């Protein structure tokens, strides 16, 4: 039987990569979280069989998520529900309602308001003759279905790194053609590891969700995980410590150095200050370890990020560990399971637009 052709997500921009990373960290809807992890892994070049193995999902599910994202973008990550009676307000009127909602009252000569509330917007629509009548709840549903929500204004922080392109190309070069004299290791910190109930998903009888305590104390503090992803084998190596200072980071580097004696280690890391400590740099220079730093605000380029998303989803989601020993054992069990199924990491974002950048792009309006 012929092997099914590989399916990959369309090329992702740097901003889309950051958005996916943010969703994998903050999404409360388990369906959206699971789909985002699939898309992020595919965007980093992982084929469907690898994703199905790590996510414990079917090939068809993974392919459908990728195809849907390619067709509809981030809208495909949200679960859709159907049913109900046909709408009484036409699609043209709905479109006009959404256009007005995205304006500010001052544009219509309304003073004293910097933004619309559902009540003032409904009154304005009726006064303008857009609709004869509309309830606030109906208006809310129309806006929500169109993807228009009431949001806080926000800022966008562009990278100020003057060497962004050079650093990014260096990282991509190591991903594409690992040096023959050594191996490439992606390192980062994961945490903090709190002892607290964590929302998750599991199979349960209908209308009988598993309950987690709502009140808890943090008497035992937090822990931090330092982890490294070996691209040659796809395996994760880690240490859990009480702190994540340069001393802990240097100790972790020494454990990686001892694991592969005689090989040059190319360690890809972000710009967290302990990574750049003088003692760390001096030791690295003396022990055939090259520290390769990501460009500022380029954490999506670190291949280990998608692995952290899966770790958070499977090892910690839906848990309520009462001790660090218990939680650390759960993490260890997941990583052992994952490493048994690990494969070499190749083809990181092979068709992404970032590979054609010659300068840092301006933020689109």
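Q: What amino acid sequence fits the structure above?
A:
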């Amino acid at each position: 039987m012929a092997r099914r052709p590989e399916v990959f997500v369309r090329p992702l921009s740097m901003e889309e990569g950051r958005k996916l990373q943010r969703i994998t960290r903050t999404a409360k809807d388990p369906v959206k979280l699971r789909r985002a992890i699939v898309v992020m892994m595919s965007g980093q070049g992982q084929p469907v069989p690898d994703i199905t193995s790590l996510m414990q999902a079917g090939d068809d599910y993974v392919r459908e998520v990728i195809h849907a994202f390619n067709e509809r973008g981030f809208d495909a990550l949200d679960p859709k529900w159907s049913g109900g009676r046909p709408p009484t307000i036409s699609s043209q009127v709905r479109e006009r309602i959404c256009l007005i909602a995205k304006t500010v009252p001052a544009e219509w000569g309304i003073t004293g308001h910097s933004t619309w509330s559902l009540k003032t917007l409904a009154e304005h629509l009726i006064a303008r003759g857009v609709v004869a009548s509309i309830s606030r709840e109906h208006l809310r549903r129309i806006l929500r279905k169109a993807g228009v929500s009431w949001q806080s204004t926000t800022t966008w922080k562009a990278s100020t790194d003057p060497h962004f392109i050079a650093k990014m190309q260096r990282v991509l070069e190591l991903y594409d053609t690992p040096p023959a004299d050594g191996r490439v290791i992606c390192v980062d910190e994961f945490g903090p590891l709190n002892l607290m109930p964590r929302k998750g998903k599991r199979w349960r009888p209908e209308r009988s969700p598993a309950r987690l305590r709502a009140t808890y104390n943090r008497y035992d503090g937090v822990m931090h995980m330092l982890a490294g992803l070996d691209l040659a084998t796809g395996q994760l190596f880690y240490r859990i410590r009480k702190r994540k200072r340069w001393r802990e980071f240097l100790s972790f580097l020494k454990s990686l150095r001892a694991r592969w004696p005689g090989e040059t280690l190319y360690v890809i890391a972000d710009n967290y200050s302990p990574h750049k400590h003088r003692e760390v740099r001096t030791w690295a220079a003396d022990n055939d370890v090259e520290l390769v730093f990501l460009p500022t605000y380029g954490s999506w380029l670190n291949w280990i990020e998608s692995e952290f998303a899966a770790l958070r989803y499977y090892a910690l989601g839906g848990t309520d560990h009462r001790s660090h020993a218990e939680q650390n054992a759960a993490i260890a069990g997941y990583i052992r399971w994952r490493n048994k199924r690990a494969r070499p990491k190749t083809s990181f974002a092979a068709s992404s637009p970032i590979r054609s950048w010659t300068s840092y792009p301006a933020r689109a309006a």
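Q: And what stands out in the fold?
A: The first strand starts at residue 182 and ends at 193.
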